[in-house]
Amino acid sequence: MTLLVYTENREGKFKKATFELLSYAQELAKNINTEIVALSIGDVSPDELNKLGNYGAKKVFSVKDEKLDLLDNKIYTAVIADILEKENAKIIIFPDNLSGRALAPRLSAKLKAGLVSGVVDIPSSYDPFIIKNKVFTGKAYASVKVTSDIKILTLSQNSFGIKDPSSDTPQIEDIKPDISCIDSNLKLLSVDMVTGKLLLTDAERVVSGGRGMRSPENWNLIEELAELLGAATACTRPVSDEGWRPHDEHVGQTGKIIAPELYIACGISGAIQHVGGISSSKVIVAINKDPDAPIFEVADYGILGDFKNVLPELTKAIKETKGS
Amino acid sequence: MKILVCISDVPDTTTKIKFTNENKELDKTGIQWVINPWDELALTRALELKESSGGEIESITVINVGSAASEPTIRKALAMGADNAIRVDIEPKESYFVAYQLAEAIKPREFDIILAGLDSADYNGASVGGMLAELLDMASVSAVSALNIEEGKVLVNREIEGGTQKLEVKTPFIAVVQKGIAIEPRIPAMRGIMMARTKPLEVVEPSNANCLTENLVYELPQPKGACRIFKEEDIKELVEVLHKEAKSI
Ligand SMILES: Cc1cc2nc3c(=O)[nH]c(=O)nc-3n(C[C@H](O)[C@H](O)[C@H](O)COP(=O)(O)OP(=O)(O)OC[C@H]3O[C@@H](n4cnc5c(N)ncnc54)[C@H](O)[C@@H]3O)c2cc1C
Ligand SMILES: Nc1ncnc2c1ncn2[C@@H]1O[C@H](COP(=O)(O)O)[C@@H](O)[C@H]1O
Question: What topology does CATH give the domain A200-322?
Fold first, then answer.
């Protein structure tokens, strides 16, 4: 039996989340004395695939087929299920992101394998299999027992650190799946990619603004600070609804859920729906002129004041610290 | 064309969550129950399409797996404008169980587009839509942020990491919807509320389904230590702390 990790590439490159997933898998594999097999779908170079070995994968299945470029969940699921059966994998780990959420449930139903999504820790017990996940939009955790033989997990991003890479390389096996007879219901018409911008879900630091920023012109202050910190920019829902900022920056229960190392919330009241999307951030800094703003209840550090003064001062002070 | 919207009955998003029975159950006292926000937006979009499609969409049905206690939420969906409703008469236990109940109830009927939400505000499985698609052996498109019907063609926008794809999809299929599908949820008008009382709500018997997982016990997050507040003139000090203690810059 093995442990299978679904590794996702973007334009042929693996991202931090993949290495985190493998680091997490190492811990599980050690505890149940098994090996990690990684599954990669798409066109990835051997050098890049080798990196999966650096983070603990003993074997890598590299699946390539033009038909898979369409990201048809049904076909993907059939391919993954096929490999799982051959490998006799008992635990399958996906990232808790768009693709994990698209594929894990289908696979779960296909294999009658219990799915725990948004896992935040290693299992507290392996037999019975018990593991903790986020529920009630991050307001609580549940300890979930999985009763099926095969278990599927999606791992919350940034809930587990990345282990130092080794120089181990994996055994790579190329697979050409037999999917010629499956028809797709999907036809791709066009793709629109965000370019030249640090993606929120990849960012280690995020600077975010709310309605307290008053108007979109004031965002230059946010952008300046973000640039200095190598951070992505984000906003609250009313801000994107107003059209002050693009929709892909909206964080919260109905937007993106993020967990960066540092989240700076400026002119944000801290409504429960907003906090649901950021509460797993490692350090939260809030800037608000209202001492009773609920954001101070979830923040680690706060600056009480007007953003117009605070943001330039903060940017200046950070520049000085970095310079010294 | 017939549309089905899966609706789950969840605590209002502002609810303070508490547990009871040695943290094994949600404490339901004082909770206000609502249509899961994604499902409310999915239904809103379905209604908009029906109104603008010039008769192409015959009906919009909503379906819920739940006890009689979820009927007020189902009636609200009817008041918003759904034509009829199905309730599978059993308390939801976990995602696979719910998806199985839905699949069995849907099998004898025909729908062209089935809508489910990205995740529910209760157990956040983010799973029922995808599971249902597999159980019905249907195509599924996840992270759908726009749904349109143009000249009989179904067009969707799908969010992928770092961008958006525009797809044409052959029916039948399941769309798992997220932000963007509709802007504001529709608020039922008085007339809708009156009409909802007489719209058909069919109660169907549950099937024999297995559970694959079980939530044993819940816990609340550790309360955060008090927030350290700095005044405007002490920003330098904060930066020092962020740099040296928190190591975040
Ligand atoms: C079903 C549902 C889902 C939702 N999902 C989300 C979600 O995903 N994400 C989300 O963000 N919201 C969401 N909301 C909305 C949420 O309830 C709040 O309305 C929203 O988060 C408030 O945004 P805000 O903090 O930008 O604005 P406000 O609440 O208006 O807060 C502005 C803050 O700025 C401060 N301020 C004002 N002027 C200054 C100044 N000069 N300097 C410094 N501070 C200043 C004020 O003191 C105040 O605290 C949702 C709501 C519902 C009902
Ligand atoms: N009890 C239920 N009855 C009907 N639909 C449901 C139920 N639970 C979940 N769903 C649907 O599945 C979506 C995702 O829920 P979940 O997988 O529980 O996060 C919801 O937005 C609903 O569309």
Answer: Rossmann fold (3.40.50)
The H-or-E segment that residue B53 falls in is none
Q: How far apart are CA A213 and CA A225, in angstroms?
A: 14
- The answer to whether A233 touches A225, Cβ cutoff 8 Å, is no
A286, A265 Cβ separation under 8 angstroms: yes
Provide the 3-class DSSP secondary structure of residue B177. strand
For residue A311, the tally of other CB atoms under 10 A from its CB is: 26
The stretches of B107-176 forming alpha helices (DSSP H) are: 128-135
Residue B215 has its nearest CB partner, among A142, A255, A262, at A142
Q: Kindly identify which residue of chain A lies nearest to residue B143, measuring between CA atoms.
A: A98
**CATH value of A2-175 in 2.102.10.10, 3.40.50.620, 3.30.450.20, 3.30.1490.190:** 3.40.50.620
- Count, in order, helices (H) and strands (E) of chain A: 9, 18
A193 contact residues in B (CB cutoff 8 A): 162-163
Domain B2-216 in CATH: superfamily? HUPs (3.40.50.620)
Cα separation of B89 and A145, whole Å?
25
CA-proximal residue: ligand 2, atom 1 (nearest): B65
The number of the ligand nearest the C-alpha atom of B140 reads 2
Domain boundaries along the sequence of chain A: 2-175, 200-322
Of B125, B215, B227, the CB nearest to A300: B227
Expressed in angstroms and rounded, the spacing between residue B8 Cα and the centre of ligand 2 is 5
Q: Is A111 on the interface with B (CB under 8 A)?
A: no
Q: What is the pLDDT along chain A (324 residues), one digit of tens a residue?
A: 899 999 999 989 998 899 999 999 999 999 999 999 999 999 999 999 999 999 999 999 999 998 898 899 999 999 999 999 999 999 999 999 999 999 999 999 999 999 999 999 999 999 999 999 999 988 999 999 999 999 999 999 888 889 999 999 999 999 999 888 888 999 999 999 988 888 898 899 999 999 999 999 999 999 999 999 999 999 999 999 999 999 999 999 999 999 999 999 999 999 999 999 999 999 999 999 999 999 999 999 999 999 999 999 999 999 999 886
Nearest CB partner across the interface for B218, out of A109, A140, A298? A140
Interface of A with B in 139-158 (CB under 8 A): 139-148, 154
Q: Residue B202: helix, strand or coil by DSSP?
A: strand
**Dihedral, CA atoms, A228, A231, A232, A234, nearest 10 degrees?**
-90
Q: Is the ipTM of this complex over 0.90?
A: yes
For residue A176, report the distance from its CA to the centre of ligand 1, in Å: 50
> Do A309 and B232 meet the contact criterion of CB atoms below 8 Å apart?
yes
Residue A250 forms contact with B (CB below 8 Å): yes
Cβ neighbours of A159 in B, within 8 Å:
none
Residues of chain B positioned with their CB less than 8 A from the CB of A114: 96, 212-213
